[in-house]
Design brief:
By secondary structure, the chain is of the alpha/beta class. The protein is about 50% helix and about 15% strand. A hairpin with a 2-residue loop joins β2 and β3.
Length: about 425
């Protein structure tokens, strides 16, 4: 496709600093994104250096110079981890207070060497979040400086989590539940009084029990998935897209957006196929069908596009892998959250190959290994085994994919 670069090298227009950075949304109880929990590290040869290591100061500088908070979190707040060494060496970090929430571990917060620094940060208006608590019996004096208290919901029992939420409210602080893995845990944390939430649950369906998949919701998706598997005639593409009026209107608006840079307005699906090719139009139609609905959360749309693009780029070095298939797998990996249906129920209805099904359901095969690497990186699990094969491409690839996803959505509205 003329508008689509599939070579990863063409995407990476940044210094080769091997900075690893990813983000996870932090949402309120209405599922509105309030900020992003940022994970960052760097590669020193084959070793991973994280923010708590001795090289943390240089890493922090590289992170800010290579990435920049605006690119990563937009106009929201970056929940940024800082170490004891970083605070002692830097004192006040070179970031505006309104752009970040600084996350300190409990052990760092009680270190006498950083007490004066913490007081200075609070006086200058920096929002501070306390994480890695030893349990509900922490020093309550810390609540005078820390406006957010984090509890790892995947590791704590319900009683301890509830106690921390109550302590936070009593001190006019905000309790944040981290490590929330599904919507059932999210609903429980909400009932216990937590007001902010982060974790993989954002990319999971609200429906947890298997039920009959509504045919009308999946019929277009099924037809578009079938088009991805082979070369389709113009008439077939027209028939699939035009029978869904909403899809055809959104797709044409999308293709005519500034992103594609068309000199003349495209007024029909046939014209679009002539300009972009059959694969190009069917790919964008799949994208619009999944992410273009009025109720689709923007964060999920960005995630779907970022995964799709990153899968495609990471697989570019393997000539045996189909870039269209990689892109589709990345997109469909968020289909359960977008459609609020179990992924196995969705895959069971789609005309995908056994390899694609295995990749989506079990992260099996070469394509599944790439998908697993993308998801692990997205969650900040930089030491995951699946990342080793792609380690020196990951940082720039993720940033390029996120940039592409955000630009694509912004210019198609």
């Amino acid at each position: 496709m003329a508008v689509e670069a599939t070579n990863a090298a063409q995407e990476f227009d940044e210094p080769d600093l091997d900075v690893l950075v990813s983000r996870q949304a932090v949402v309120d109880n209405e599922m509105r994104v309030t900020g992003y929990r940022v994970a960052y590290a760097a590669l020193d040869g084959e070793e991973i250096v994280d923010h708590a290591d001795r090289s943390a100061i240089r890493l922090f500088s590289d992170f800010l110079s290579v990435v920049g908070l605006q690119e990563l979190v937009g106009s929201t707040v970056a929940h940024l981890p800082v170490s004891q060494e970083m605070l002692v060496t830097l004192g006040i970090p070179p970031i505006r207070p309104d752009r970040v929430m600084l996350r300190l571990s409990y052990l760092t917060a009680i270190d006498p060497e950083v007490q004066t620094i913490v007081d200075g940060l609070a006086m200058r208006g920096y929002a501070l979040s306390l994480h890695s608590l030893p349990g509900p019996d922490f020093d309550p004096k810390l609540l005078e400086r820390f406006g957010t208290i984090e509890a790892d919901f995947s590791a704590w029992n319900v009683d301890d989590a509830a106690t921390v939420a109550m302590q936070a409210h009593a001190a006019c602080a905000t309790p944040l539940a981290s490590g929330v893995f599904d919507h059932r845990a999210f609903e429980l944390a909400d009932r216990l009084g937590f007001r902010l939430f982060s974790g993989p649950f954002i990319a999971t369906p609200r429906v947890t029990s298997v039920r009959q998949v509504p045919v009308d919701r999946l019929s277009t998706l099924v037809a578009l998935a079938r088009l991805q598997r082979r070369s389709a005639e113009i008439e077939e593409i027209e028939q699939v897209i035009n029978r869904d009026v909403g899809l055809s209107v959104k797709l044409l608006r999308y293709i005519n957006s500034a992103y594609f840079g068309m000199r003349h307005n495209i007024g029909s699906i046939r014209q679009a196929v002539m300009m972009l090719g059959a694969h190009g139009v069917s790919r964008w139609a799949l994208l619009v069908a999944l992410t273009g609905g009025p109720s689709a959360p923007r964060e999920l749309s960005v995630m779907a596009l970022t995964r799709a693009r990153m899968c495609e780029l990471l697989g570019a070095r393997n000539p045996d892998l189909d870039p269209e298939e990689l892109f589709m797998v990345g997109m469909l990996s968020v289909a359960d959250a977008l459609l609020d249906l179990p992924i196995d129920a969705i895959v069971g209805q789609l005309p995908v190959s056994p390899e694609v099904a295995d990749a989506l359901l079990h992260h099996g095969g070469d394509v599944g290994a790439i998908l697993d690497a993308v998801i692990c990186y997205e969650r900040g699990e930089f030491g995951a085994v699946s990342l080793v094969a792609h380690r020196h491409d990951l940082g720039a690839c993720y940033r390029a994919s996120l940039r592409w996803a955000r630009r694509t959505l912004a210019e198609s509205v």
